[in-house]
Amino acid sequence: MLDFEKPIVELEGKVRELRKLMEGNAELDLADEIARLEQRAARLLAQTYARLTPWQKTQVARHPDRPHTSDYIAQLIEDFTPLAGDRLYGEDTAMMGGVGRFRGRSVVVIGQEKGRETEDRVRHNFGMARPEGYRKAQRLMRLAERFGMPVLTFVDTPGAHPGVGAEERGQAEAIARAIETCLDLRVPIIATVIGEGGSGGAIAIATADRVLMLEHAIYSVISPEGCAAILWRSADKAAEAAGALRLTAQDLHGFGLVDEVVEEPVGGAHRAPQTTITRVGEAIARHLEELEAISGEELRAARRRRFLAMGTAA
């Protein structure tokens, strides 16, 4: 439960209590009261999520019950075959990847996976990939180009792993090479920011022809906590930093950095994962159909122009 959701959760809790009372006493009729509370909860939920602050959106983007990359793969990709390793060092479970079929099309899928339970999250390193993860992504992108398959990526990471071992194995170089590979491909690339899009760890697999973003996802050069620690030397200023970073999907779409904001169900993706995944699938299919009509050379040239122009004066 998120802090700002407490009034909503309390109302939903009262509804559950009244339902249990009715189940235990057949003569007790609380239907009208239950309906009134449900309407009030639904109204409060809609009002709350219609005016989320950037910091609240950050909290929603990090909600553990939001659908993860593994969920999107399970529901959108048929016959998915995971491929492991970078052929240089080893496997990185923070970065999922493999081949499968999306609505009849053969595709390569790449994405960060945070994991759910504590043990699973540790195994996936909380979605923070090491150099071998980004080199695996490069390998799979080149595989996609070789066989003419579109690339679908799902971005959900607080950032690349900052450990000593990762730095020793060339974290910055691996990220830069992944971005370079994205820019060089002659097949369609569609990236979807499904939760957190953190720094170079995100853009390494999001340098795409189309960048989609869920309504309550975030995408930024640094986390609000990291920004606050640098500017104010205190993580207590994270909420203020979140507003200054302009990290919401709405901000980024306004800047032209994101092509489409995919609407989430009322109350966020964590309340209706299946509906969210379906909407993302529809958006990907629509953009993929447009991109497949463009030649590989034109895709590559347009992608490079787009990203190299970012940040320059109009």
User: Oligomerization state of this entry?
Assistant: single chain
Q: What is the share of helical residues?
A: 40-55%
Cα-to-Cα separation, first versus last residue:
43 Å
Structural class computed from helices and strand pairing: alpha/beta
Number of domains: 2
Overall mean pLDDT: 93
Shape label: globular
Largest sheet: 8 strands, mixed
SSE topology sketch:
Elements: H1 6-24, H2 31-50, H3 54-61, H4 69-76, E1 78-82, E2 95-102, E3 105-112, H5 118-123, H6 131-146, E4 151-157, H7 164-168, H8 171-184, E5 189-198, H9 199-203, E6 210-214, E7 218-220, H10 224-231, H11 238-245, H12 249-255, E8 260-262, H13 273-291, H14 296-309
Parallel strand pairs: 3-4, 4-5, 5-6, 5-7, 6-8
Antiparallel strand pairs: 1-2, 2-3
Helix pairs in contact: 1-2, 3-11, 4-13, 6-8, 10-11
